[in-house]
Task: structure prediction
Amino acid sequence: MTPGTTRTSPKETLAQRLIASGHLHSRVAIDAFRTTDRHAFLPDADLDAAYKEDAVPTKHDEHGEMISCISAPSIVATQLEQLDAQPGHQVLEAGAATGYNAALLGKIVSPGGQVWTLDVDQDLVAQASKNLVKAGVDNVTAVMADGAAGLPQHAPYDRIIFTVGAGDVPVKILDQLAPGGRLVLPMRIRGSISRSFAFERDGATWKTVSCEMATFIPLRKGVCDDVYTLVPMAGDGNVRLETFSEQDVDRDALRTVLDQPQTKIYTGVKFRQGSAWEWLYLYLACVLPNGLSRLPGRRPGFTPHFDWGSMAALAGGSLAYLTIREGEDEKGRYWEIGVIGHGEAGADVAERVVSEIRAWDASGGNKAPEPVFRMAVAGARDRLTADDARFIIDKPFSRLVVDWARTGTN
Result:
């Protein structure tokens, strides 16, 4: 370090990084990041790991699967901006984890505000409480409770935020939200495709004021658990498939499906540098019967569209996953989307996915306006309709409608 200069603190560097990336922009959230040491909530992690753009696991189950973590900084910032909490607000958080998110919230709602943060494991609640005390945060209380059931004794809340994933709307917490309040909820749409919704009341139904792509560790040990089954692929490598209760699939057959002959089809749809995959994922999650499932890992002969793995459409014991091939034309470098099918119905599934990708592209693709989301529960569900029934997602407790304003051109 040059004599006479001042070293920038890790929390200040993090805040500056998130401002530059566009994830952080409100003054109260920026100040919270600048005054909260993330590493203080990760006593077993080194400094670099605490501040890098990645989630840090803090607890695993008996199978080695992560069941608690501190989210990546950009995800934390995104959700706090979605929540738009203000000084004086009463806030309920489901998913205490390390207490870091709650500490940021505590600073945002000061003076006069209070935060209650919930988790289902006593060891997590105890550690979060310890971290909060050491950090000097005095307006946050960690409680062992089911986040999906809320904490009615302290309701109503101006803001409710879930930092764990749900497969449906936890309806018990809706009555705990104050008039004019906001709920931020990461919810799966179908299969692995999930988004963080910021819901506000719109008469008898709910509208989104913000919606961002995000995936979280699922709710567990409660009234709205989001249970999924991880299917390890047989053979070499570590490829595994996420499956969910609403999917009509043959998990035993899927274990060996990648050992079966493949059908590869390219779509003619080209992505350029910076093209977003999120809207194609969302579209396919709506129009395919089983949505899309994450297929992470590596193995010989597996050629996914990302280094981490791919997204796959499922049908019984067959699947078709996304791939790409690189090329260059008069517009420059591109990546053409392809689909690789395996299993008895693999060719048919691949054809279906290719057809839907071409339809998405022909109706506007990434050039189309972003979709709008509406939600309803209980007797208000029937009030939500759509011109295309494929974009009505019915769940046990709620109905989600995705309104696509397609352009009709590309």
Observations:
- The two ends are 52 Å apart (CA to CA).
- Residues 406-410 have pLDDT under 50 and may be disordered.
- The longest strand covers residues 177-190.
- Residues 346-362 form the longest helix (17 residues).
